Amino acid sequence: MWVKICGITNLEDALCAIEAGADALGFVFYPKSPRYISPENARKIAEKLPLHVKKMGLFVDATAEEITFTCKEAKMDMAQIHFEVDDAFWSALKVPYLRVVRAQKSEDIESFKGLIRLVDAYVPSFGGAGQRLDLSWFEHQDCENIILAGGLTPENLEQIKPFGFYGVDVSSGVEREKGIKEHEKVREFIQRAKA
Ligand SMILES: O=C(O)c1ccccc1N[C@@H]1O[C@H](COP(=O)(O)O)[C@@H](O)[C@H]1O
């Protein structure tokens, strides 16, 4: 299973996640988030990381032009678009991206069906709140294109295994405090996701 550890704010947490086998790391460029990192600081970390690990910039309420610029400035491989956008946005975006569905009801998870997408639980603060999705919504769905997020922890990973998700994304569930990872939880999460 593909694993992304999100909300990275320092090099130590990034290296811990990589040593444990993370496939991707997330850097939050949303100024209202407690996990916000400046593009300049994200770049200092990204430059020290191996090429095979995807560096993903997470955005809320930004224009396609701003996101394109910030991803290049911060040496991100990809943008995670964590808010609703119109069709014109996607063609204006000039970096690879991951679509996010913030699901409030079961029908929502069918948005962008067939495309690789991250499905997170809807929260007014946009994310990182540890809010879980109702797993019964996924029971008759093809989950192989879905990266699941929202309230995941090392302890509840076992419940999602039978669905066959492409990947998982976690932030608050492996933290010691907002923006700082608990390394033992990071290792445990990745080990269980990949088992
Ligand atoms: O982490 C944040 O602060 C954040 C802010 C705004 C939008 C998304 C954010 N995080 C993403 O939310 C999901 C779920 O997080 P959690 O595991 O429930 O804490 C995940 O994709 C985070 O990257």
From TrEMBL:
Pathway involvement of the protein, from the record: Amino-acid biosynthesis; L-tryptophan biosynthesis; L-tryptophan from chorismate: step 3/5
How would you classify this enzyme at the top EC level? isomerase
Q: Which InterPro entries match?
A: Aldolase_TIM, PRAI_dom, RibuloseP-bd_barrel, TrpF_fam
Q: Which residues form the N-(5'phosphoribosyl) anthranilate isomerase (PRAI) domain?
A: 3-191
Q: One short Pfam family name for this protein?
A: PRAI
Taxonomy, superkingdom: Bacteria
Tell me if Amino-acid biosynthesis is a UniProt keyword of this record: yes
List, in alphabetical order, the Gene Ontology terms for molecular function in this entry: phosphoribosylanthranilate isomerase activity
Instruction: Return the EC number.
Output: 5.3.1.24
Its recorded reaction(s) are: N-(5-phospho-beta-D-ribosyl)anthranilate = 1-(2-carboxyphenylamino)-1-deoxy-D-ribulose 5-phosphate
**Which GO biological process annotations does it have?**
L-tryptophan biosynthetic process
**Which Gene3D superfamilies does the entry mention?**
Aldolase class I
Keywords from the named record: Amino-acid biosynthesis, Aromatic amino acid biosynthesis, Isomerase, Tryptophan biosynthesis
Q: Family assignment?
A: Belongs to the TrpF family.
Q: What is this protein called?
A: N-(5'-phosphoribosyl)anthranilate isomerase
